[in-house]
Design goal:
By secondary structure, the chain is of the alpha+beta class. It folds into 2 domains: 80 residues, 2-Layer Sandwich (Phosphorylase Kinase, domain 1); 241 residues, Transferase(Phosphotransferase), domain 1, CATH 1.10.510. It contains 12 helices and 12 strands. It has a 6-stranded antiparallel β-barrel. A 3-stranded antiparallel sheet has the order 8-10-11. The protein has a two-stranded antiparallel sheet with strand order 9-12. A hairpin with a 7-residue loop joins strand 2 and strand 3. Helix 3 packs antiparallel against helix 5 and helix 5 runs antiparallel to helix 9. It is globular, with a radius of gyration of 22 Å.
Length: 386
């Protein structure tokens, strides 16, 4: 197409496609009504490319990874988020490979993906078209913090339960998210549905294969990462989830370190100095290091007096130095802290029904997801993957 008009969202229209052939290159854009048409591949199922048109594009986020746009699909009027990242043509994009495997009600859905050319020659961008979810746990927590309030405990239960469901699912596939934090937990405030997003740091962990230790946002980094472990497991996500739960209960981060070392200091202030055995479990190379001996701070004194005992108990089961001592996401789902969600009469504070929480697959049940408590709730179904 000669003299292609300027695109309205990502790339200069006068740039031709790169010399390497990519499926799903952008094919046209109309400036007048700001409609962009691309050849995109569905996120799940068929690999057959199809035309997708969208409009009303605006930037809603950016960072070292790239840019996120909000747009509206012309065919359905559905809002989507388009995450645009620079693609290294020598490698497959790990985030795309992982997201194409995921299909779960508590994980943001990859609807399509396509490639677009950049301003520089040979520059190619991968565009992930994701379902758009308006809020995050971070924004909700910040709003309550500004009001000098904590999030109602019923919402904390609802959000954390869904987070553990999403972790149980990805961990069953061998996938570790590696960046669990409130900013990556999307929320629909009307329905109460939570969806885990941003798999840009995620990786399929293989025993015996080393991984980078500088991963995960600082406040939520498991201690084995601070100790430089490279053979860690999906238990790093469990630690991060424990930090999120503690933060929602406290109204502020539980371990607000200014640096990697300071992060460890903040953890020691609460958990006490790790024993030699605990250090060995985190990273055997650090057993000779000498740490000042500090006693653990009672969990009851870490939290406000009105904090439910069940909530404190769950935090204590998640924030263990020894990675293998942390409870699994499946065990967390069965914890008594979530019993209120298993009562068929429980409703959201806005009087709406709870979102689907117990539609597990047979695989999930075999793995013990939710335990016996969940079988008591009405409406147990197997329609969605758990």
């Amino acid at each position: 197409m000669s003299g292609r008009p300027r695109t309205t969202s990502f790339a200069d229209g006068n740039k031709g496609p790169p010399s390497v052939s990519f499926p799903g290159m952008k094919i046209s854009s109309k400036d007048g009504n700001k409609i962009t048409t691309v050849i995109a591949t569905p996120g799940q199922g068929s690999d057959r490319p199809q035309e997708v048109s969208y409009m009303d594009t605006k930037v809603i986020g950016n960072g070292s990874f790239g840019v996120v746009f909000q747009a509206k699909l012309c065919e359905t009027g559905e809002l989507v988020a388009i995450k645009k990242v620079l693609q290294d043509k020598r490698f497959k994009n790990r985030e795309l490979q992982i997201m194409r495997r995921l299909e779960h009600c508590n994980i943001v859905k990859l609807m399509y993906f396509f490639y677009s050319s950049g301003d520089k020659k040979e520059e190619v961008f991968l565009n992930l078209v994701l379902e758009f979810i308006p809020e995050t746990v971070y924004k909700v927590a910040r709003h309550h913090s500004k009001q000098k309030q904590t999030i109602p405990i019923s919402y904390i239960k609802l959000y954390m339960y869904q987070l553990f469901r999403s972790l149980a699912y990805i961990h069953s596939l061998g996938v570790c998210h590696r960046d669990i934090k409130p900013q990556n937990l999307l929320l629909d405030p009307e329905t109460g549905v939570l969806k885990l997003c941003d798999f840009g740091s995620a990786k399929h962990l293989v025993r015996g294969e080393p991984n980078v230790s500088y991963i995960c946002s600082r406040y939520y980094r498991a201690p084995e990462l601070i100790f430089g472990a490279t053979d860690y497991t999906t238990n790093i996500d469990v630690w991060s989830a424990g930090c999120v739960l503690a933060e929602l209960l406290l109204g502020q981060p539980i371990f607000p370190g200014d640096s990697g070392v300071d992060q460890l200091v903040e953890i020691i202030k609460v958990l006490g100095t790790p024993t030699r055995e605990q250090i060995r479990e985190m990273n055997p190379n650090y057993t000779e290091f000498k740490f000042p001996q500090i006693k653990s701070h009672p969990w009851q004194k870490v939290f406000r007096q009105r904090t439910p005992e069940d909530a404190i108990n769950l935090v204590s089961r998640l924030l263990e130095y020894t990675p293998s001592a942390r409870i699994t996401p499946l065990q967390a789902c069965a914890h008594k802290f979530f019993d209120e969600l298993r009562d068929p009469n429980t409703r959201l504070p806005n009087n709406r029904e709870l979102p689907p929480l117990y539609n597990f697959t047979e695989q999930g049940e075999r793995e013990g997801e939710g335990g016996k408590r969940e079988g008591d709730r009405k409406g147990w179904g197997k329609g969605e993957r758990g």
